[in-house]
Write a structure and sequence with these properties.
Elements: E1 2-6, H1 13-24, E2 28-30, H2 31-39, H3 43-66, E3 73-75, H4 84-91, E4 94-100, H5 103-112, H6 116-119, H7 128-146, E5 149-152, H8 158-171
Parallel strand pairs: 1-3, 1-4, 2-3, 4-5
Helix pairs in contact: 1-8, 2-3, 3-4
């Protein structure tokens, strides 16, 4: 079974995913990074050239490619679960874990990451605080719908979050490790 990390931008999916990968000795796949490698372009470049539909098409292709993977940690882009087909190809053999993060922490993380704005173009073309607030209102119900487990990352270290996930997996007797 795969561990599939979902959540809004800057919720810690990549950092926690890498740590889980190490703790569980599983391969790690980050769909945003896979898109950059496959296209040779940043997310911002893809969106600038073809709009968000072009990015979602590239994302869907990457996720479809991951549908045959088993026993891995997969970090999905923040909006990947808004496309039902993405969920359907991974849900059957994936434990979906929502890394829930407060709005203030998201904004602080995005501002603190120098590459963040380069890699994370505006979703709506407005101020970041307003955008985050609006997008969370839209996406929280989607994340909640698909989450098998919810882990709050607000004010917590990557290590704390990763250990909580490992402990939850053990407590549920879910076979993940290779």
């Amino acid at each position: 079974m795969n561990i599939v990390l979902i959540g809004y931008r800057a919720s810690g999916k990549t950092a926690v995913g890498k740590r889980l990968s190490a703790l569980l000795t599983l391969p790690f796949y980050d769909t945003d990074e896979m898109i950059r490698q496959r296209t040779g372009k940043s997310i911002r470049q893809i969106v600038t050239e073809g709009g968000w539909p072009a990015f979602r098409t590239a994302e869907k292709a990457v996720i479809e490619g991951l549908s045959s993977v088993g026993r891995a940690v997969i970090a999905l882009g923040g909006g990947a679960v808004t496309e039902k087909e993405n969920v359907e190809v991974l849900k059957g053999k994936g434990l979906f874990i929502w890394l829930q993060t407060g709005e203030a922490d998201i904004l602080e993380r995005m501002e603190g990451d120098g590459a963040s704005m380069e890699q994370r173009p505006s979703l709506r073309g407005e101020g970041m605080a307003g955008e985050v607030r609006e997008m969370l209102v839209e996406r929280i119900p989607v994340y909640r719908t698909y989450a098998d487990l919810i882990v709050d990352t607000t004010g917590r270290s990557v290590e704390q979050v990763a250990v909580e996930i490992v402990n939850a997996i053990k407590a549920r007797n879910i076979e993940i490790s290779a």
